[in-house]
Design brief:
- This protein has helices at about 1-10, 15-35, 50-60, 70-85, 85-90, 95-100, 105-115, 140-150, 160-170, 185-210, 215, 220-225, 235-265, 290-320, 320-325, 325-340, 345-350, 360-365, 380-405; strands spanning about 40, 45-50, 65, 180, 370, 375-380.
- It has 19 helices and 6 strands.
- Helix 2 runs parallel beside helix 13 and helix 14 (about 290-320) packs parallel to helix 19.
- It has a two-stranded antiparallel ribbon.
Length: about 400
């Protein structure tokens, strides 16, 4: 029965076109990711693509190793030396690009200096140009210092005392010095996975929307429910088909995406902490790039199940694929328009929506906490628990609603 339900989906021309579109879009995403990597050559020209990634990897590998005080001091010295050259001070774009190219090997570490020596949530690209080698000893201590200043100042009313203590404790327990390596492959993979997952959910929404409404649209519902297992095994088969469809396509696309991106850009730095990526310098999650990607992939899968099971629920309840197919659009795009409002309560409620699991890469670098019964949790832990409960609750709900469907 499960095979028959899957066959009904893929035999349709519209489903075949949807799958072709998904493969094309996967190719487009991979192409964009690979060409996002830039390398400035000795003539000040910007190169992109596979060759650029290889050259960037070679340049950054020269600075790989333990990111200790000595390494930070060397980066500050080299940055100051290059910034003092005629090329760096020239107003000519080509000359400026040449000087920038000399800094590419330590550009990630320089970016960390920007975050380490600016106030919390403040970005000033030129701060490293005003540092001295003696400032290197404050590199790690500034991270905790700026957090404390932010919690006592601008964010004083945003968090409870327990939440503040939780954040400070997380910052204090980060093991330093960090290990640094070329991480471009993991940076691009994590950033692009969000886009890919959202595309997949929208297309999978189209494929799953007709699983429960198909018989009603074909006027075959009387035959379906009149059969021996029409209200039992046949309904279960539809749920299993939906689950297998989502699971199979999701993990196949994720595997292909990761294989292409890491295969071209490199998987170096998998064991480095995410704090070596400047945008996640202030993250309170102590995980490596490999762990981060696994978290993004599993979270996206759970979010996809939540949204697509809701799609199937609407399909079973309304007997309409048209109504069902708009569910993913509503759950992905509408919350984005409402979030960041001035109402903290609304923002917190929307923080539990399954679409947040599709963009865990953003949640990892955002300080979003929940306090339950005196215990503080990060938003990701709460999201996982709530959506696991939602998925488990949707399965029997779909079965019961469709099993009780009336035949007219």
């Amino acid at each position: 029965m499960v095979y028959y339900e899957l066959k009904k989906i893929f035999v349709k021309k519209s489903s075949q076109i949807a799958m072709l579109m998904l493969l094309i879009l996967l190719g487009v995403v991979c192409w964009i990711v690979i060409h996002n990597v830039e390398y400035v050559n000795e003539r000040g020209e910007i190169e992109t693509g596979v060759a650029a990634a290889q050259k960037l990897r070679e340049a950054e590998k020269e600075w790989a190793g333990v990111l200790d005080e000595e390494k930070i001091r060397d980066v500050i010295r080299e940055n100051l030396r290059i910034s003092a050259t005629p090329e760096a001070q020239s107003e000519d774009v080509v000359q400026s690009n040449i000087a920038y190219g000399w800094k590419q090997g330590f550009s990630d570490i320089r970016r960390l200096l920007v975050y380490a020596f600016n106030d919390f949530n403040v970005y000033n690209y030129y701060v490293p140009d005003h540092l001295t080698p003696e400032d290197a000893k404050y590199f790690y201590s500034n991270r905790e210092l700026h957090l404390r200043e932010w919690l006592e100042g601008p964010a004083a009313d945003q968090y409870t005392e327990e939440e503040k203590a939780f954040l400070i404790q997380r910052y204090e327990t980060l093991q330093t010095p960090l290990q640094y390596d070329y991480i471009e492959g993991w940076k691009q993979l994590s950033a692009s996975t969000t886009m890919l997952v959202m595309i997949m959910v929208l297309i999978l929404g189209f494929l799953t929307a007709s699983i429960f409404s198909g018989e009603f649209q074909l006027k075959a519902d009387a035959v379906f429910f009149a059969s021996r297992y029409g209200r039992e095994k046949a309904v279960t088969a539809k749920i299993k088909a939906g689950f297998l469809l989502v699971t199979g396509i999701y993990w196949l696309m994720m595997l292909l995406h990761a294989a292409v991106v890491l295969g071209v850009l490199g998987a170096d730095g998998a064991g480095c902490m995410i704090q070596t990526n400047g945008s996640k310098w202030m993250s309170f999650y102590h995980i490596t790039f490999l762990q981060e990607y696994l978290l993004i992939a599993v979270g996206g899968y759970l979010g996809a199940l939540s949204i697509l099971f809701l799609t199937m629920l609407v399909s079973a309840w309304s007997k309409s694929s048209v109504l069902a197919v708009i569910v993913p659009f509503i759950l992905i795009f509408i919350p984005e328009f409402v979030r960041n409002s001035k109402n903290i309560l609304i923002d917190r409620i929307l923080g539990f929506f399954p679409d947040m699991l599709l963009q865990i890469n953003s949640a990892i670098k955002t300080i979003n906490l929940f306090q339950i019964g005196g215990k503080v949790f990060g938003s990701i832990e709460v999201l996982f628990v709530i959506n696991m409960i939602l998925v488990l609750a949707l399965l029997p709900a779909i079965f019961i609603i469709y099993r009780r469907a009336e035949v007219k």
